[in-house]
Amino acid sequence: MLDLTAQQTRQWIDCEQLYATYRDTTRELATRFAGAMSWKTVKDRTYLYRKTGDTWKSLGPEDDRTREAHAAFHQGRDALRVRREMLDQRLREMAPVNRAMRLGRVPVLSARIIRRLDRERLLGGGLKIVGTHALYAYEAMGAVQFGEEAMTTMDIDILYDARVSLKMVGTMQADGLIGLLQGLDKSFRASAPGSFRAVNNAGYMVDLITPAARFATVPRSQARIGERDDDLAAVEIAGLAWLENVPVIERITIDEQGFPLLLIVPDPRAFLCHKLWVAGRNDREVMKQRRDRHQAHTLAEMLATRLPGMRFDDPVLTAVPAAVLAPGADLVASFAGGSGEGWDE
User: Fold this and answer.
1) Is residue 137 a contact partner of residue 251, using CB atoms and an 8 Å limit?
2) Which ranges in the chain belong to alpha helices (H)?
């Protein structure tokens, strides 16, 4: 684990702030200035109409009020478009510098998928990133870079919050997650009918996962984002409820080409405890157990030495069972030189 240098930190902060402004500007264009606004003549009278989606709605006949609304809409939209273009150009100028300073971390395809989820309001609106890719957000929290042995992966895990209505997670119901992925890479296909996994021609995998039902006897309908028959159906996995029920962390990070993206991930303490719990399962493959433990130890060292204020007696972690929380607290304490006591005082 390496600390970012002062120069890297300055560049990161500049990129982070710039992208936050770019993202806010893009979202405002997509919401406040979505659709169109124009004049239409109906029976010799002129009316102002606003288009939202496929629907046109009259805002009233032409008068001082509607003329002012028309001017404000177009002037505001044009100003934001100019601003976004300038921010986009600045981000493009920063990208090669980010690469040269070795700040680019997230695989390019992963970054494209995450940005699309964010754009469609799915990220943080029912979906969050878990698994190895969450570590990129934790690196940003601690201003460090983890070793490649902890980060190497050819898949991305997307956690679907089964408590969120499908109608609430975004605008992708028609095409679903598989449609979103195919919009980025046409070779993506579900690995089998009704599968939780999509795979492209390069072997890159996208897994849609969800917490196992609390009561196994209660049937749960398949968790899908879209209505397509070939859309991914989330697979239920034990222990994910702990990651679902803790606060999320939002961090801007940088992909291998030098462009930023937003990651929304579970609290790192819950992630650490979950990794230790998974590594201790007898049904876990040995190689995966080793990676789980390595990731847990890497994250524990960072929490102990870079983020010591993130205590394990924090009330926000009550969703994590004490028996699962304790080993994580003890591991972090071992890196801090403590006894591990006091996590549940």
Assistant:
1) yes
2) 6-31, 64-100, 108-119, 134-142, 148-151, 176-184, 240-244, 268-279, 286-305, 322-336
Structure pTM?
0.89
* Core vs surface per residue 132-161: b (16+ CB within 10 A) or e: bbbbbbbbbbbbbbbeeebbebebbbbbbb
Name the residue with tokens 């879209």.
226
Q: What tokens appear for 30 in the block?
A: 């997509």
Residues in the chain: 345
- The answer to whether the CB of 256 falls within 8 A of the CB of 110 is no
The identity of residue 183, as a single letter, is G
Query: Tens digit of pLDDT for each residue in 176-192?
Result: 899 999 999 999 999 99
Mean pLDDT per 10-residue section of the chain, whose length is 345 residues: 96 97 95 93 93 90 95 96 97 97 96 95 91 96 93 90 59 79 95 94 95 63 75 91 94 97 98 96 92 95 96 95 96 76 38
Cα(226)–Cα(122) distance, integer angstroms: 12
| CA nearest to 198, candidates 253, 156, 150, 168 | 156
pLDDT, tens digit, for every residue of 203-218? 999 999 999 876 554 5
Other residues' Cβ atoms within 10 Å of the Cβ of residue 31: 9
What are 241's two structure tokens? 């409820």
The DSSP bridge pattern shows strands 235-237 and 205-211 to be parallel
Q: How far apart are CA 293 and CA 245, in angstroms?
A: 22
Closest to 50 (Cα-Cα) out of 40, 41, 63 = 40
